[in-house]
């Protein structure tokens, strides 16, 4: 299965449902009266792309309807979304000198640990040596979870005790990565709600301590987002970005019916690129993100 | 948690209050904005549409147009409809039936943590719970639930190398019976609602253990998907209720409205923190109050009543009146305030306090003041005038602060005392002039 097919398959169920809905609205009222526009607005909102982008699409649709009387809502939506998502930037920043340090952050249950493992698998497949740091010292069995993944992927895992200082562990792990001359160090962190001041401070400390050990690190701070999350993902992104300077997003669980449309709202406001998407429970289910494909998969016309 | 939505609705109704009388068009305008606010809060668009329709019907009726304060009336209608949508005015009565509880949901929604919290709550309510590890997919899931079990002192049943959940279920039931555990909580693996194979696995487990309760665990930050998730799980399994997790974040929680509306099943529990005690009963009315910016005043009052001792308050009042308030009282007061929990959470419960300044600074400040007072002897707290330079140096050292901070703290205390004295005088004066009826005191 090609990448695009896989992606489409993941998004298919609702994309067709949504596309069907839009098609129904447009066919019933091709001149798009106020009611039809209202319905169209609601259908667009159901993708979680946010009120802002929805408004932009509606405005363009209105303008096009006025000018030509004939509109292709799908084309307008696809273009607008691809534009807002920007150009594809699905490569990881690489440090001029190894190791490249990647920090993974996010709220509880977003899929950080699984993503860490998948990313390690991807990097290893490209011939890199990868070291993992189990800095979630809070959640029960988080360390065991990463160790099991490490075993499957074939990566060493640096771990400490539960309840120990995660920043100290990150510091040690970076030391280990330097000593082993690893190409990549992936730092898995504990899930934290962006509203918890003390936990966010802890995250900041981790950042600070890494910089102290090796200036310029972490080279990449990835925010992991659950595709089923609605508008709150924007708050999450805002807070994490303000605190840590997020360099990219990873959207997980896109193999469900959730469309992950909220990344459009995030890209619109914070200009953060989506770097990877998670499409399942297998190790090789982490895929580079392509804005064009994403837009196309969200808004593809149903095949009659 | 519904802060942004309350801001929105508040601004909507501020405009509405400005009108002398309600016309059809401004009802429609207001409700249009309510709809946008609901959508922005992740309420499903169909649910929001129905909600607006129903509210419009009521708002356009006689009751509103003829009423004296139309704005208030509309607020009430919207509020009542929201309460309706989330399950009615009754707080969801939480019962803890003996038997089997099945916890289901997507990946990462908080099933295992909620299972642990639930088992603790069950034990607290006189049940003998057993936790069963049915997540056979995620690495270390069994370790996680075993750790939780240890923390809450609830036994955990797990079969390490078994992948067949019905086998695990069968043996778990036998184990529960042999061990005299009367309530069994089955923690299952996260799965997509559209993954037919995995959902069928749950159906088989359900048919085997015939659970009294099937709870769908859902993240409060869930977006428009909430409806699909709830519908699918309900159709496949016939859920009996919903556990809404991560409500301690700032998610607007529209998902709560949507899921309740499409399944008709109540939200029974709310996860409000990372600690294993942080599972509460769900109160639709309070939630609706928050949505409308009325704040969770009931919750705040309850909390305050729990923490404050009425007699103690009476005693303080008298002390203020005869001006014998000392640092001992001040310290006691502060410790009571602390019992209410973080200031941030507290203020969030007040109406109109949706967007809160960051208070973690003042919390740290409070800690320092407390440390200073605790470094004093009891004698010194009773008679602050004893505090000379050398005592102050000792206190600064003992509390890890500086003499300047000790001085500041004492200055603040004296100012407060003087202010209270003045207030007391004023009260007397006003009472004499008849502005306040005699015997009436300033609010505490």
Pick out its properties:
heterodimer; A: 304 residues; alpha/beta; Four Helix Bundle (Hemerythrin (Met), subunit A); Rossmann fold; 2 domains; eight-stranded mixed beta sheet; 11 helices; 8 strands; 52% helix; 13% strand; B: 444 residues; 434 Repressor (Amino-terminal Domain); 20 helices; 58% helix; flat; disordered C terminus
Number of strands of chain B: 8
Biggest sheet overview of chain A: 8 strands, mixed
Largest sheet of chain B: 8 strands, mixed
Shape of chain A: elongated
Provide a count of the helices of chain A.
Answer: 11
Secondary structure layout plus pairing:
The complex is a heterodimer of chains A (304) and B (444).
Chain A: H1 3-28, H2 34-45, H3 51-68, H4 73-85, E1 100-105, H5 112-125, E2 130-135, H6 142-153, E3 156-158, H7 166-180, E4 184-189, H8 197-213, E5 220-226, H9 232-244, E6 248-252, H10 262-270, E7 274-278, E8 286-288, H11 291-298
Parallel strand pairs in A: 1-4, 1-5, 2-3, 2-4, 5-6, 6-7
Antiparallel strand pairs in A: 7-8
Helix pairs in contact in A: 1-2, 1-11, 2-3, 3-4, 4-11, 5-6, 7-8, 9-10
Chain B: H1 3-18, H2 24-40, H3 45-59, H4 62-65, H5 70-86, E1 99-105, H6 111-124, E2 129-134, H7 141-152, E3 156-157, H8 165-179, E4 183-188, H9 196-209, E5 213-219, H10 226-237, E6 241-245, H11 254-263, E7 267-271, E8 279-281, H12 284-291, H13 297-307, H14 310-321, H15 327-339, H16 343-348, H17 360-374, H18 378-382, H19 389-399, H20 403-433
Helix pairs in contact in B: 1-2, 2-3, 3-5, 5-12, 6-7, 8-9, 10-11, 15-17, 17-19, 19-20
């Amino acid at each position: 299965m090609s990448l695009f097919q896989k992606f489409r398959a993941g998004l298919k169920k609702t994309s067709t449902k949504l596309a069907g809905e839009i098609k129904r609205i447009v066919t019933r009222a091709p001149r798009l009266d106020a009611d039809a526009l209202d319905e169209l607005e609601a259908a667009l909102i159901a993708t979680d792309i946010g009120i802002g982008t929805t408004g932009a699409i509606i405005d363009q649709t209105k303008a096009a309807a006025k000018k030509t009387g004939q509109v292709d809502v799908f084309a307008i939506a696809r273009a607008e979304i691809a534009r807002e998502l920007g150009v594809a930037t699905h490569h990881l920043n690489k440090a001029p000198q190894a190791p490249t340090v990647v920090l993974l952050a996010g709220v509880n249950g977003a899929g950080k640990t699984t993503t860490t493992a998948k990313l390690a698998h991807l990097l290893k497949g490209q011939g890199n040596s990868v070291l993992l740091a189990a800095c979630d010292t809070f959640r029960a069995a988080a360390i065991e979870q990463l160790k099991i993944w490490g075993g499957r992927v074939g990566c060493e895992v640096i771990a400490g005790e539960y309840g120990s200082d995660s920043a100290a562990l990150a510091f040690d792990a970076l030391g280990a990565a330097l000593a082993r001359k690893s190409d990549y160090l992936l730092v898995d962190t504990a899930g934290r709600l962006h509203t918890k001041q003390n936990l966010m401070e802890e995250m900041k400390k981790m950042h600070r301590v890494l910089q102290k050990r090796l200036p310029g690190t972490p080279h990449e701070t990835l925010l992991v987002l659950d595709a089923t999350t609605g508008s709150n993902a924007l708050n999450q992104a805002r807070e994490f970005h303000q605190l840590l300077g997020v360099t990219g997003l990873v959207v997980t669980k896109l193999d469900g019916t959730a469309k992950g449309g909220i990344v459009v709202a995030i890209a619109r406001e914070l200009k953060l690129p989506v770097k990877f998407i998670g499409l399942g429970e297998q190790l090789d289910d982490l895929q580079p993100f392509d804005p064009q494909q994403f837009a196309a998969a969200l808004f593809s016309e149903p095949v009659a | 948690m519904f802060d942004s939505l309350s801001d929105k609705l508040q601004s909507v109704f501020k405009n509405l209050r400005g009108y002398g009388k309600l016309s059809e068009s401004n009802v429609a305008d207001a409700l249009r904005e309510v709809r946008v606010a609901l959508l922005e809060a992740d309420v499903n668009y169909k649910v929001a549409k129905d909600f607006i329709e129903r509210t419009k019907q009521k708002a356009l009726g006689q009751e509103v147009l003829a009423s004296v304060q139309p704005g208030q009336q509309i607020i009430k209608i919207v509020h009542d409809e929201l309460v309706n949508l989330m399950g009615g005015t009754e707080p969801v009565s939480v019962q803890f039936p003996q038997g089997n509880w099945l916890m289901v949901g997507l990946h990462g929604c908080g099933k295992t943590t909620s299972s642990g919290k639930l088992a603790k709550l069950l034990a607290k309510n006189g049940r003998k719970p057993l936790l069963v590890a049915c997540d056979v997919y995620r690495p270390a899931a069994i370790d996680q639930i075993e750790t939780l079990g240890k923390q809450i002192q609830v036994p955990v049943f797990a079969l390490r190398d078994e992948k067949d959940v019905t086998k695990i279920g069968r043996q778990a039931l036998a184990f529960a019976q042999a061990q005299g555990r009367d309530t069994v909580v089955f923690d299952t693996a996260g799965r997509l609602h559209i993954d037919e194979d995995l959902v069928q696995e749950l159906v088989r487990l359900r048919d085997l253990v015939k659970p009294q309760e099937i709870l769908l665990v859902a993240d409060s930050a869930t977006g428009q998907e909430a409806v699909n998730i709830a519908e699918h799980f309900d159709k496949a399994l016939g859920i009996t209720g919903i556990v809404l997790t991560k409500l301690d974040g700032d998610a607007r929680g529209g998902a709560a409205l949507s899921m309740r509306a499409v399944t008709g099943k109540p939200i029974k529990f709310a996860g409000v923190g990372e600690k294993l005690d942080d599972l509460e009963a769900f109160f639709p009315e309070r939630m609706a109050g928050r949505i409308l910016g009325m704040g969770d005043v009931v919750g705040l009052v309850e909390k305050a009543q729990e923490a404050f001792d009425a007699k103690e308050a009476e005693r303080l009042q008298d002390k203020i009146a005869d001006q014998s308030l000392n640092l001992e009282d001040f310290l006691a007061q502060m410790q009571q305030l602390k019992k209410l929990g973080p200031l941030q959470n507290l203020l969030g419960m007040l109406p109109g306090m949706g967007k809160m300044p960051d208070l973690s600074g003042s919390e740290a400040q409070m800690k320092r003041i407390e440390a200073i007072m605790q470094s004093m002897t009891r004698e010194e707290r009773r008679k602050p005038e004893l505090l000379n330079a050398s005592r102050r140096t000792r206190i600064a050292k003992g509390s890890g602060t500086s003499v300047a901070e000790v001085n500041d703290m004492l200055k603040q205390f004296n100012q407060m005392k003087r202010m209270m004295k003045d207030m007391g005088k004023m009260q007397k004066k006003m009472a004499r002039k008849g502005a306040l009826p005699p015997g009436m005191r300033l609010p505490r």
